[in-house]
């Protein structure tokens, strides 16, 4: 009996361990984020999403200088430091400017008291009107001089006109500087600019391209098309400028996609690997906000390039999964990878 009881207990414990192990595997599976590659349907006969290599540029480099002259008292920032709009970048010795403000304020206060006394005499017909008008004019002049002195005092503080990075500090502490002497150079960080070069056919149809984006670290970021330079370079390419608020640094290379909306009932193509069958119907996975959803399409024959012709269900603006479709489920979150990945679908 004791042997039988031990055997039963052993079986129960083994079953519990297997159940726990199964749950752990299930939990691990639920946390897997599959990797996929995406593309856009191509319009047969012309308009389609086009891909170009771009370079991130800073919007502008601003040279900052004092609006007053004097001796530099402090420079509380360093090269490469990120600063916020209004942050103090450098300061002059303020002693002489503060004295000028104090002196002007004393004169204004004295003149105001004098004008108040003269006003009472003038209203009581005990003073000539010309004398009173001269006193009020002198008060206005002194007030202007006070405001000017206060402005000069404020000019001893050099602040950041926008968010950005300190690119260079060009002066040292205790150095004398004149008005307009460059002290700090700042890279404008409000918006980044991406530049691409496009061939003549894209430049010619520029007005038809109504959207642009790029993918960075698996995230899709929209781009605003700023302008196109209508003069070709030596390679017969045209420069296009696009703007973004994405967290990218100047000098980075990115893949830029520009797109034109297809007309209704336009025939499209997608890679053969993007289409799968279920219940006798054709489907593709469409990506939006890093989540996928299954969409029914009308698939026709395969064209000469090996792509499936789609006659309904898609638009050129749709982002379609072209690789890694076999293990996906409705509504799951996925990670977008570029062509260099060797483990699409997380099969390895």
Can you walk through the features of this model?
- It is a single chain.
- The chain is α+β, with helices and mostly antiparallel strands.
- The protein has three domains: 33-59 and 190-336, Efflux pump adaptor protein, beta barrel domain (Elongation Factor Tu (Ef-tu), domain 3, Beta Barrel); 60-92 and 156-189, OB fold (Dihydrolipoamide Acetyltransferase, E2P) (Beta Barrel); 94-155, Helix Hairpins (Orthogonal Bundle).
- It has four helices and 23 strands.
- Strands 1, 2, 17, 18, 19, 20, 21, 22 and 23 form a nine-stranded mixed sheet that branches.
- Strand 13 (211-216) and strand 14 form a beta hairpin.
- It is elongated, with a radius of gyration of 35 Å.
- Mean pLDDT is 83; it is low at 1-12 and 24-29.
Report the C-alpha radius of gyration, rounded: 35 Å
Low confidence ranges: 1-12, 24-29
Q: Given this structure, which CATH class of the largest domain is correct?
A: Mainly Beta
Please give the alpha-carbon distance between the first and last residues. 50 Å
**Category by helix and strand content:** alpha+beta
Specify the biggest β-sheet. 9 strands, mixed
* Count of discrete alpha- or pi-helical segments spanning 4 or more residues: 4
- The succession of helices and strands, N to C, reads HEEEEEEEHHEEEEEHEEEEEEEEEEE
CATH third-level topology of the largest domain: Elongation Factor Tu (Ef-tu), domain 3
Q: What's the total count of β strands?
A: 23
